[in-house]
Design goal:
With 723 residues, this protein is of the alpha+beta class. It has 4 domains: 159 residues, Hypothetical protein af1432, CATH 1.10.3210; 145 residues, Beta Polymerase, domain 2, CATH 3.30.460; 150 residues, no CATH class; 76 residues, ACT domain (Alpha-Beta Plaits). Helices cover 49% and strands 17% of the residues. The protein contains 27 helices and 22 strands. The strands form 6 sheets. Strands 3, 4, 5, 6, 7 and 8 form a 6-stranded mixed β-sheet that branches. A 5-stranded mixed β-sheet has the order 14-18-16-17-15, with helices on one face. Strands 20-21-19-22 form a 4-stranded antiparallel β-sheet, covered by helices on one side. β16 and β17 form a beta hairpin. α8 packs across α17, α18 packs antiparallel against α21 and α19 crosses α21. It is globular, with a radius of gyration of 34 Å.
Length: 723
Amino acid sequence: MPEVAVKSMDPTVEHPEQKLLNQLCGQLHGYLEPAQIEEVVRAYHYSADAHSGQFRKSGEAYICHPVSVAITLAEIRMDANGIMAAILHDVIEDTEVSKQDISLAFSPEVAELVDGVTKLSRIDSRSRAEAQAESVRKMILAMAKDLRVIIVKLADRLHNMQTLDKMPLDKKKRIAQETLEIYAPIANRLGMNDMRHQLETLSFKTVHPYRYEVICHAVKQFKGAHKTVFDTIQTAIQNRLIETGIDGTVGGREKNIASIYHKMRRKKISFKDVFDVYAFRIYCEKVDDCYRALGCVHNLYKPIPGRFKDYIALPKGNGYQSLHTVLIGPYGLPIEIQIRTHEMHRMSESGIAAHWLYKSDQEKNANLQARVNEWLRDLLEIQKSARDPLEFIDNLKVDLFPQEVFVFTPKGKIIKLPRGASIVDFAYMVHTDVGNACVSARIEKKLVPLQTKLENGMCIEIITAPWARPNPLWLNYVITAKARSCIRAYLKNFKQQEAIGLGRRLLEKELKSLNIDFFDIDNNRMLLVLQQLKSHSLSELLEDIGLGNKMPFLVAKYIAQTGDSGDIPMRDPSRGGPLIIKGTEGIVVSLAKCCRPIPGDPIIGFFNPGKGIVVHHHECHNCNESRKKQTSWLDVEWSQEVSGEYPADIRIELMNQRGSLATIASTISSMESNIENIHVVSQDNRVSVDLITLAVRDRSHLANIIRKLKKLNIVLKITRIKA
């Protein structure tokens, strides 16, 4: 909402607010009861009094803005409470009126709607971006309770975009960019294409004025150059429909400038390669007629293979239904044809607003409402797992830009996903628990990896395991907001529990070196320690220790001091025994990549604040500086029950001849090891120097591999890299 300036009212100036009110009442008389219109007029006077003395940048009275928003909503026949909320939508934010005042003056329902649209003006945020993100998050939550919130907000944003001229350039671009990223996609998600096109066009014109003019000029030239051809095609299609006895009318559709630009950017094509700058629409009475009309146009002009889409049988997520096909018209001109019923067209333009516009068709409205409710449920699940407003907005943006594919469960259920979605996205769409436990999948009864991209028509069976858990690497290829938020939420909780467990082990070890048993510490003593260390709970303290934010020796020292005022012994790392490492602890205990320690190596641990413990080889050169900090390192040892495979680096010099690497690879494979990576350091006609990363069980396994490789005639020298 643009800022307002406050100045005195000049009675000699003719103000347009009364004219706007008359226009609004004229529209409302078409569908509201007189008593309801009286309430709307009362809301107008209430809002006008509250905004008295406030003016927009254009100089008009501020009340003109909310009334203009109400007029937009009256065009889609919004109910009386929605119209009143539009007229009152800025009073909480810009005046002294509170939500409770509105509730008393009108109704709790109107007050809730106004509050849902109101921005958060007093939130404690670190940046403008976070404040805007929190505002959108609040709006989405209010929208989940009542869809009228977002309808009012979209109408509000549309009028703001229509009146941006008087704003400073930087603010115009910021508002327009936010509209492109959030509000236009929301309008699209709700199926309100008419609203979306207006928001996109106004925003694009503001953000990219030169590009807007260039594409506008190109569109005018295109239409002018092909006007005769378009008239010929339209007449030919109309005549063919009449000959076939199909009750249908043919019209034109011009693609909006923003859509043309985004298509050129997305597909990396020039303007001349955009097929649907100008498309034809065929409007039929019945669904059967749509498919018959498709046959007619395919007989009339040759279709382009792979360009047919059936959105009637498989509607888009926002409820959009139509048949799309691209044909080769006269002179080789590609033409797009869209075929739909009149009802489908009304629904595609109005979307969720059809709930108020066309109350006669309750079944259609119910289907669309169900789709919207399903989307809102997903948004609520996403916002619950988001750590902060900015993460929620990132996930929301991901969700708002879907290009869908349709896949099937083994039982034949259709699931819609964004184009580029992976197996993991599908698993989370089936159920969160299925996503968390998935290990593999079958497509057409063939095993496939989890990062496999989905294509239309695939039948997917998810394979789960009780021991499985989400992998952080999944975040590199999942694209749905639900999958991303669920993985982050699980990992955050898992890391927290893992850090608490490690922190407890570290603290018990340090307390043991001071002859204190962790379980003997009474509650009063622990509360004093928590106060001193500014921790809210024991779990929080243990988590900080596990993540390396607090040194376990210092915490143990605090505990000892709290119980005994005598001298505290200096730290002796040898007392209490080393920390036992299994190598499979996960996120808060990691193996250093610089020296790649493996079971059997002498190792040492270092605290990395915020991340936990990093385990290095004792001979690693990166440890030299850290050893000087007595409280940042600790003794660690490998567990006797250690299992699994660990990466180890070797440097190998071998004769540069055909088949050398194949011989090395087969030898390593025969020793039950895998090559994870090969890097050629240098190479000439005689010698090749390579760095090879192997997967080994322990130090003995690696030694056996090296001995086996040394026996090969082609190997000149081989060493293990420890730093």
